[in-house]
Amino acid sequence: EREREIFFPLSCATNRKVSFKIEQSGLMHGFGAYFEAVLYKDVMISINPDTHSPGMFSWFPMYFPIQTPVYLPKDSVVDAHFWRKVSRTRVWYEWAITSPAVSRIHNARGEANFIGL
């Protein structure tokens, strides 16, 4: 168990609030997430469709669904909160929106999806 903590310490739990301005009205069902990293100067790896690295097959997009779809008027702002949670045996993400409506916290305690360590 101690070896796992060295490679994935409990301090890897984190959270972030992100905001998106809505350019066109519509119904939101969730969020798509992509991986992109600058390794050194102009060297990067990415699965972002706009900057995808050729031959990049080891990372995959992630979908964060919202249980109840939310109507987003044009020029509104979506505020979303994401938490990466960690235990001694697994890692999982939780998420919620707080604007323009408030959702429940999705995947609380990793109830629907987690990554085993």
Helix content: under 10%
Low-pLDDT regions: 1-6
Strand order, largest beta sheet: 1-6-7-8
What is the helix/strand order?
HEEEEEEEE
Number of helices: 1
Largest sheet: 4 strands, antiparallel
Q: In angstroms, what is the radius of gyration?
A: 17 Å
Structure description:
The chain has 117 residues and is mainly beta. It has 1 helix and 8 strands; from the N terminus they run αββββββββ. It has one helix spanning 2-7; strands at 14-21, 26-33, 36-40, 43-46, 62-72, 77-86, 90-99, 115-116. A 4-stranded antiparallel β-sheet has the order 1-6-7-8, with no helix packed on it. A two-stranded antiparallel sheet has the order 2-5. Strands 3-4 form a two-stranded antiparallel ribbon. The longest helix has 6 residues, at 2-7. The chain is globular. The relative contact order is 0.23.
Summary?
The protein is mainly beta and 117 residues long. The protein has one helix and eight strands, in the order αββββββββ.
Topology readout:
Blueprint: H1 2-7, E1 14-21, E2 26-33, E3 36-40, E4 43-46, E5 62-72, E6 77-86, E7 90-99, E8 115-116
Antiparallel strand pairs: 1-6, 2-5, 3-4, 6-7, 7-8
Task: Provide the descriptors you would attach to this structure in a database record.
4-stranded antiparallel β-sheet; globular; 117 residues; mainly beta; two-stranded antiparallel sheet
